[in-house]
Design a protein that fits this description.
Blueprint (H helix, E strand, L loop, with lengths): L2 E5 L5 E8 L11 E10 L2 E7 L7 E2 L1 E4 L6 H13 L9 E8 L2 E9 L15 E7 L1 H9 L5 H16 L2
Parallel strand pairs: 3-8
Antiparallel strand pairs: 1-2, 3-4, 3-6, 4-5, 4-9, 7-8
Length: 166
């Protein structure tokens, strides 16, 4: 049984307010928090193909933020669980957040060229495989309809702007 914190529209945790994961009992002005982590290495982004149980689509690492856990803490946990990546928390840069109905995604970026040869240990229940993609390749996955919608929202809000402003 996992509990999630409940937040206001600004991303501030509501004191002593939590819900059971999967519970849809949020009020109109309440949100749960999720994290998304974009990893950049030598101009490409690490994209994972999710397991069949998770939809078999392409996405970035991330997940729900449990009650009384910070987004940064959860980002580190998700990277460890999904990819076997032990990352220094100081390498996580918060880009901002993306809000959808009842969810706030805190979006992080890791830029580390040493990860190109990293031997990722994938959590098979979550991740089938990983691939390094540039923005044109990500755009192609989006056009084919095989890129997770929430990851597309982060991409459109932050990553595409970072890359195409160069």
């Amino acid at each position: 049984m996992e509990f999630l914190g409940v937040y206001d529209e600004t991303g501030k945790e509501l004191e002593n307010r939590k819900i059971l994961r999967g519970d849809k009992a949020l009020k109109d002005n309440e949100y749960i928090k999720l994290v998304a982590v974009w990893i950049k290495c030598e101009g490409k982004y690490l994209i994972q193909k999710t397991s069949k149980e998770k939809g078999g689509v392409f996405a970035v690492s991330g997940g729900h933020v449990p009650y009384k856990t910070t987004s940064k803490q959860q980002a580190i946990i998700e990277l460890q669980e999904e990819l076997g990546l032990n990352l220094d928390p100081n390498k996580l840069k918060l880009l901002g957040n993306v809000k959808i109905p009842h969810c706030i995604f805190d979006v992080f970026l890791v830029e580390d060229d040493s990860l190109k040869q990293y031997n990722f240990n994938l959590q098979k229940e979550e991740v089938e495989s990983v691939v390094w993609c540039d923005c044109k390749e990500i755009d192609n996955l989006i056009q084919k309809g095989i890129f997770r919608e929430s990851s597309k929202l982060h991409y459109d809000a932050f990553i595409k702007n970072l890359e195409y402003q160069k």
